[in-house]
Design brief:
about 100 residues, mainly alpha, Serine Threonine Protein Phosphatase 5, Tetratricopeptide repeat, about 0% strand
């Protein structure tokens, strides 16, 4: 049986508008989009290490999620992890674009 993955802790958002994102993530933790969006909230607050945790979770859910790869590249670059950032930038570039509907 696979070991359950523990979600990174959600700390209070810096802005009131972000509280809705936190509630949405808590209600939908298995959505890559929700994980990516919470990473964006954290990145805007300069909380790069925490943002990386949520981008990792988004990519665990959907390994071909181009936007999460790009956001991960930015966060890793901010943390000085340049080789990893380059890998995610390349994966973002090669990921398929979402089809419009």
């Amino acid at each position: 049986m696979a070991k359950a993955r523990r979600m990174p802790p959600l700390r209070p958002p810096a802005r009131e508008a972000d509280s809705g994102t936190a509630e949405w993530l808590l209600a939908n933790p298995r959505l890559a989009y929700a994980q990516n969006n919470w990473g964006i909230v954290l990145a805007r607050q300069g909380r790069w290490t925490e943002a990386v945790q949520h981008y990792e979770e988004a990519l665990r859910i959907n390994p071909r999620y181009a936007e999460a790869h790009l956001n991960m590249a930015v966060a890793l670059q901010r943390l000085g992890r340049y080789a990893e950032a380059q890998q995610h930038a390349e994966q973002a570039r090669s990921a398929p674009l979402p089809s419009g509907g």
